[in-house]
């Protein structure tokens, strides 16, 4: 089946999907069926600002097959620009939705990143939740460029349908982009701190914070050391408010 074209909203030239969760999962199911490599990026304001400041990171985002509106700031920016997305598609939730589909289709998943303890606990928990999905391999995120070849070879031999990478936004997206074709996995997605939550190391923001679009604030309260990274949020908000209806017409 040929994949449908994804409707997008260009946030400062970065094409973010307007699909809701259900249609996103359907599109990615077709991606798995195609057997061709797809990189999925869970776009948030911090990533957008980084892309606007760093050409190499911008290329990573523009070359991805799908950018979903993970950050509430991205959802808000689309609303301000008059081209709203259907809903927020959080990477954490998308990962679980893909595992649910994988249960019925016998998919295989590979987990890459975080610490040895977290990755093992994450794999064990996912096996409990989704016994129909085979965890065909795990590897912690403590490896450098000199070990990339070994990691790629191991993943290729495992031949997963899904590859989830948790090495931090600054590392995971460029790494997937750099090796996408050689990895050859139908769906590859950076998942940031999702393994920490699944393993039980940390807790996701309470529902009230999620509904108020304040997950970022909850994370800041829990991890004050993130404040420097979070400075991109007000910069993004100011940039959107200044541009308003021109958000979707502007590049860098």
TrEMBL record:
Keyword list, A-Z: Cell wall biogenesis/degradation, Glycosyltransferase, Teichoic acid biosynthesis, Transferase
Enzyme class label: transferase
Amino-acid biosynthesis keyword on record: no
Family matches, as InterPro entries: TagA_TarA (IPR034714), WecG_TagA_CpsF (IPR004629)
Keyword field contains RNA-binding: no
Catalytic activity: UDP-N-acetyl-alpha-D-mannosamine + N-acetyl-alpha-D-glucosaminyl-di-trans,octa-cis-undecaprenyl diphosphate = N-acetyl-beta-D-mannosaminyl-(1->4)-N-acetyl-alpha-D-glucosaminyl di-trans,octa-cis-undecaprenyl diphosphate + UDP + H(+)
Pathway this chain belongs to: Cell wall biogenesis; teichoic acid biosynthesis
EC number assigned by the record: 2.4.1.187
A Pfam short name: Glyco_tran_WecG
Family stated for the protein in its record: Belongs to the glycosyltransferase 26 family. TagA/TarA subfamily.
Alphabetized PANTHER family for the sequence: PTHR34136, UDP-N-ACETYL-D-MANNOSAMINURONIC ACID TRANSFERASE
HAMAP family: TagA_TarA
Task of the protein: Catalyzes the conversion of GlcNAc-PP-undecaprenol into ManNAc-GlcNAc-PP-undecaprenol, the first committed lipid intermediate in the de novo synthesis of teichoic acid.
The protein's name: N-acetylglucosaminyldiphosphoundecaprenol N-acetyl-beta-D-mannosaminyltransferase
